[in-house]
TrEMBL record:
Protein name (record): 3-hydroxyisobutyrate dehydrogenase
Lineage: Bacteria, Pseudomonadati, Pseudomonadota, Betaproteobacteria, Burkholderiales
Annotated PROSITE patterns: 3_HYDROXYISOBUT_DH
Pfam families according to UniProt: NAD_binding_11, NAD_binding_2
InterPro entries: 3-OH-isobutyrate_DH-rel_CS, 6-PGluconate_DH-like_C_sf, 6PGD_dom2, 6PGDH_NADP-bd, HIBADH, HIBADH-like_NADP-bd, HIBADH-related, NAD(P)-bd_dom_sf
Family assignment from sequence similarity: Belongs to the HIBADH-related family.
An annotated Gene Ontology molecular function: NADP binding
Superkingdom of the organism of origin: Bacteria
Record-linked SUPFAM superfamilies: 6-phosphogluconate dehydrogenase C-terminal domain-like, NAD(P)-binding Rossmann-fold domains
Catalysis: reaction(s): 3-hydroxy-2-methylpropanoate + NAD(+) = 2-methyl-3-oxopropanoate + NADH + H(+)
């Protein structure tokens, strides 16, 4: 089994790292939150005092960080790349700007390092179950090296293209997800306002032309579906501010390509309003509250 350094143990990173421990890999972990590190050490991982210490001796380095600035700071400003043996592999699973991914990949290549950007889709439930979808940017050779590790954390692996392509595809997916969740919430709120049972309406939509991932697997209305954030007062899951970040990345990509994303921009504004209302740390399905619904 591989010796792996895993840096970034948030809502997604921690369960991903746990699956690698369960698969028998030798894991060294680092995070700024001690409680997150303890979860992994209790499962058998080794804690490092710093990111630089974590990568010492690692065959594979995996990062799962919040935003572009964190990835660039770690790899470029803190010069983590210089600490990694050039024969090793780097996998960044963060969702960041494509240009940031390309910049870090170019710096890695200059040092002789193989690197892929491999953002994920599937949410915290997929991370825990090991059924994530990895959307990879990088060379065929780097992906071939990364695949055995990614397969321990996910079910689907797509090669989107060269460095940065994984981020472009992920941004497109999350823009659509934000639009779908806002639209689903609006439809459910309209039905409830007119006397419908939200579960009955969700069942109808799931078997009709409006069916989508939100109604079937991640319903935003409390009590309709067990074990989703909506039924846990919107705790955990994928935060509003993270969705807002991804919608901002979509807007930046659209500006750079002179592309039109009117629904994406509308969704970004809706999530911005929701975040400004003090909901930034809640799961993004809490956008239903913007339509007047208050959880019991």
């Amino acid at each position: 089994m591989s010796s792996i350094a895993f840096i970034g143990l948030g809502n997604m990173g921690a369960p991903m790292a746990l699956n690698l421990v369960k698969a028998g890999h030798h894991l060294t972990v680092y995070d700024l939150v001690p409680a997150a590190v303890r979860t992994l050490t209790d499962a058998g991982a080794r804690a490092a005092a710093s990111a630089h210490e974590a990568v010492d001796g690692a065959e594979v380095v995996i990062t799962m960080l919040p935003a572009s600035k964190h990835v660039e700071s770690l790899y470029l400003e803190d010069d983590l790349l210089a600490r990694i043996d050039p024969s090793k592999l780097v996998i960044d699973c963060s969702t960041i700007a494509p240009d940031s991914a390309r910049k870090v990949a170019a710096a890695a290549q200059a040092r002789g390092l193989a690197m892929v950007d491999a953002p994920v889709s599937g949410g915290t439930a997929g991370a825990a179950a090991g059924t994530l979808t990895f959307i990879v940017g990088g060379t065929d050779e780097a992906l071939a090296r990364a695949r055995p590790v990614l397969e321990q954390m996910g079910k689907n692996i797509f090669h989107a293209g060269p460095s940065g392509a994984g981020q472009v595809a992920k941004i497109c997916n999350n823009m659509l997800l934000g639009i779908l969740m806002a639209g689903t919430s609006e439809a459910l709120a309209l039905g409830v306002a007119n006397g419908l049972d939200p579960k009955v309406l969700s069942d109808i939509i799931a078997k009709s032309s409006g069916r989508n991932w939100a109604t079937e697997l991640y319903n935003p209305w409390p009590g309709v579906m067990p074990n989703v954030p909506a039924s846990k007062d919107y705790a955990g899951g994928f935060g509003v501010d993270l969705m807002l970040k991804d919608l901002g990345l979509a807007a930046e990509a659209a500006l750079a390509a002179r592309a039109a994303v009117p629904l994406g921009e509308l969704a970004r504004n809706l999530y911005a309003l929701h975040s400004q209302g003090g909901n930034g740390k809640l799961d993004f399905s809490s956008i239903v509250r913007l339509y007047g619904h208050k959880a019991p």
